[in-house]
Structure formats: structure tokens, C-alpha cells
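User: My collaborator sent over this chain with a note saying "see what the structure looks like." That's all I know about it. Can you take a look?
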Amino acid sequence: MFAAVCILLGLPCASTVAIPAPPVNDTIRIEIGSRQLNGTVYAPHAARVRVRIGSDTSRIVNEWTNELTHGDSAGKAVHRWVTKGTQFPATGQPVTWELRQTYDAVTLQPYGYHSTRSNGARSQLTIDGTSVKGTRVMPGDTTVHKVDITLDRGGFFAGASDLVPAAVGFKEGRVIIAPVWSPTATKAEWRVFTIKGKTPINVEGTQVVAWKVEEHREADKQLLATWYLLESTPYMVYGEVPLPNGQIQRMSEVAIPMSGSR
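Assistant: Without extra context I'll predict from the sequence alone. Here is the result:
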């Protein structure tokens, strides 16, 4: 067709016209139980995360360790995550905290969420599909509040949303749309994970080549986080979270020995 046009116009025509095809995003919309997702990619491991606000040389405002072990619960293969951390406020005493979570080993569906903090706050929740039940105590309070919520749909835990891309599989240009939930939410929220490609990133003085993944909220397209992820431990090596005041919260993660070997 293009050769015929140039002949009619009396223009020189190339013998071959190469027209590059536009890139096509590989978009995958998943929910809990989708076959496109396989949580067994996550092997038992331990890692340490440090959080700074502003730059990589700013003071540490939060630090924690993650440890993943595999187990069984009522005949189901599960992942058990134990996270222990310390928050360092600008003023006042540090706050220690511990979070224990149980996920389905394949679907990553949350089953259990148990959080305690040294300021007295604690939550103990059981998740069964869209049903979230348990108790919650607010900081500095002794009143035990009952939690009984029915979500509109099951979702992945928002605090571990970076687990989703590797469980689906990395591919440059791939877009993954998935529902997430937070323990205080009554509805799941759709998030969009866009895999931008591989890129080098400095992680506590070490150059690491990782998959760059942007996480947006689907409803308003707001950028919630940029993740730098691996296909092997410790999986997430760096993260950037925009804060309302315009600053960036930066998280770096490095592998450490598991508790049994320390």
C-alpha cells in the first residue's frame, strides 16, 4: 500500500518499509485464587529493612526484620511471616512492635493477622474469604473493640502488596491489577502494578539490578509506591513511597541469616 502511494506521487520508494509495531502491555487482572498467581515462588528466608525519609543518608525512622517460614494449617500449605521492628520517632521513646501473619502458600490469601506494639496497641484478626473477625485495642487504651467486617471481595494485604508481582511473574510492560485490603478497611481497593523493566539500584552501598515496579491506585491513578524487586531472596530490595508532604519514604532491604542459624 505505501509503495503504491509513493509511486503515484513520483517519490522514491524503498524496497522494504519497516514499521515497528507499538508495544502492547500484557495486562492481567487477578483476584484471590487466580491461576495466574503462584505464591510458592517465595522461599523461606530472613531480611532486614531500614526506613528513612528524604535521602538514603537520613536518620533511620523505622527498622524491622522479616522472616518467612513454610508450614501447614488444617491441611493447607501456608506461609508464616514474623516481623519484628522498632520505630524511632523524632521525639519520645522508640516504639517496638511485632507482626505475625499467615498467608495461603499458593494464593497469598491472608488467613491471620496478629499485631502488638509497646504503646499498648494490638490487633488480632482472622480472615476467612471476605470475613474479617477479631479484636483491636488502640494505643494508650484498654478497651477491647470487636472487629466483624465483611469485605466486598477478598484482597491481598496492602502492607505486603510488593509480594504480588513476583507471584504473577516479571515481564517488562506487564500490568497487574489486583485488590488489596488493610486491617482497618471495610472494602478492598484495586491497585495497578506496572513492571517497567530491569534497572540498577543502590542498596546500602551495593549495586543491585532489580525489576522496577510502580504501584498506583486504580481509582485515581495516584502513585503509591515504586518497588525494586528480585526473583530471589530477599525479593524486595528497595522501595520509595511518596508522602503527603512531598517527601519520599525510602526502604532498603538486605538478606540476613534466619533465626535458627543466628
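A starting point for your reply to your collaborator: Residues 1-23 have pLDDT under 50 and may be disordered.
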